[in-house]
Amino acid sequence: MHTVVLGTSGVSADDVIAVARGGARVELSAGALDALAASRRVVDALAARPEPVYGVSTGFGALAVRHIGPELRGRLQRNIVRSHAAGMGPRVEREVVRALMFLRLKTLASGHTGVRPLVAETMAALLNAGITPVVHEYGSLGCSGDLAPLSHCALALLGEGEAEGPDGTVRPAADLLAEHEIAPLDLREKEGLALLNGTDGMLGMLVMANADLARLLTSADITAALSLEALLGTDRVLAPELHAVRPHPGQAASADNMRRMLAGSGLTGHHQTGYDGLQAAPRVQDAYSVRCAPQVAGAGRDTLAHARLVAGRELAAAVDNPVVLPDGRVESNGNFHGAPVAYVLDFLAVAAADLASIAERRTDRLLDKNRSYGLPAFLAGDPGVDSGLMIAQYTQAALVGELKRLAVPASVDSIPSSAMQEDHVSMGWSAARKLRTALGNVNRVVAVELVAATRALELREGLAPAPATRAVLEAVRAAGVAGPGGDRFLAPDLAAADAFVASGALVAAAETVTGPLA
Question: How large is the average pLDDT for residues 417-445?
Fold first, then answer.
């Protein structure tokens, strides 16, 4: 199994996905262990002094005014974990919790938090044992870190609360630790606080969302090309010189994907001559949803590039408060504020909604006999007796409507907390949660366009689709999505198409002909 070695300088997005989704093992480098030990010596020295130090010898948040004596400090650290493990609602997905724990471990390994090496080693042991603490949907405001989610993870390190074992069964954390011979932690000064105080949940979800949206953008380029072909549109609008005069890199990449998909097509270019006796006025241009597909998906690509830039900076960061600096100072700071991550999570939700919106418009065009240039109404076998894909577009429209609501930003909705000490928060966790929902909906919308476009292409008898299109058609039919014909129970076809897109099989099928797509 793949192993990720944690040093002091951060991790990559690929590392996060390997641990969160791939179950990769985690190890701490010798350098990380040395940095942990060095920063712990700083905290131990401060703990021995009479002056109060936040997180070491004081309470937390609005209670930081109280100095805590040495005899109560262990209890203080346990109490912050227990009291902050106050999440409610459904369980959060296993991959999110693993990303959350791994990214917190990344910050511990930086040597800026002041925890003992044992704390980091115990967290690594939980990840490697496949023990996943139960974390709930609600409890983070995205400032002072993802407090409740991280607290539930920390609680498991103490042998308290519940966790999911490697077999998927939820059990008492104490039992799971005992089975894997992991000793529960007895926390010391600052360690409880250090386990809670980071943007790790929202960052983990951003990293995975970036990967998912990248796949969806390529998938949408493919289905847009299929729709253009099925509508007998022109690929001349995809010429590189046209996109060079408006030099957005994402736009050029999407246009290139579509152009490569359509290479060798016998269906494109009929927009000015009609087809098979169709008595329609020649088209000088295709509709916006077809012609502007690279501009919309391309803008999404450029938004994604910015989100990856922000994620990369966060992955190199050590987010804690207070933080142990290289010169030995321990300083309070505001680096736990999730605004940088929250903003891009919200921005991606906007891009995702628009990507789905334009895909739905192409689907509607394929189904409307007045705008589809000779295709039967709703792509039905016997229109009137059969309804074809009529209601599939309703489902698509419902998904797009929900995506528009999910695009409303969370990051502008600060709610003060902790007796007004924490009077401005990022809501980054909420932004991340709604983005995960949004991307699932985009996948479904793209899947419906795929079902419609492939059916329409097979109804264009006498014209040969592009080789890449044929590869997609063969793969989607092999995946259990039926072609044209009479009405049948449609939900299984849509579910199969959804899984086909989500698995990356759509992109893989196209790339057997096109080579790697952007």
Answer: 94
